[in-house]
Amino acid sequence: NAGVTQTPKFQVLKTGQSMTLQCAQDMNHNSMYWYRQDPGMGLRLIYYSASEGTTDKGEVPNGYNVSRLNKREFSLRLESAAPSQTSVYFCASSEARRGYSNQPQHFGDGTRLSIL
Amino acid sequence: KNQVEQSPQSLIILEGKNCTLQCNYTVSPFSNLRWYKQDTGRGPVSLTIMTFSENTKSNGRYTATLDADTKQSSLHITASQLSDSASYICVVSGPGRGSTLGRLYFGRGTQLTVWP
Q: What is the least distance, in Å, from the CA of A77 to any CA of chain B?
């Protein structure tokens, strides 16, 4: 089982460049999430999608946009990359539905993004 | 302020020994508490999820306990193996309300190293 697949695994960008991080899950999950993980800090939620066609902001949405393309895919876009966005980005999915969150999240292995 | 604090920050033990990791939280209201294991360079993997009515849950050599009155949880690892070397992350969930998913509060993790 592939689970949650993220591409690319590594990327280096210059300040001001744009890029899209891709995420796909094959578990028929309703909810999908984008997190960033920085050294010495807990995971922080950027955006999430509780169901196909809906997206909502998390704790740190500034500088990012997302698209829930279909039930399987959830992409994260950096329109104008900044050095402060250097981080490891994780996508996750869950069976959780609106108002019900007692389900584990399944994470991908991350995209390591460096912005120079 | 809702927070999740983990201790110790790092821990080194010898293979075969037991250890206990601690998690204190101030999240209220509380829905569930999760423990994740994150290997270096990989995404977090769920170990246990406990609701407020559960005080113990096991997953192989991992046993999590929860005291909802004192807002404390522990993760006990029995007969440690080299493969247990990882970061262990405590995550506390607040309940979802209406159309909003429950928010997850992530601790910064305890880095466990198991030496042969």
A: 20
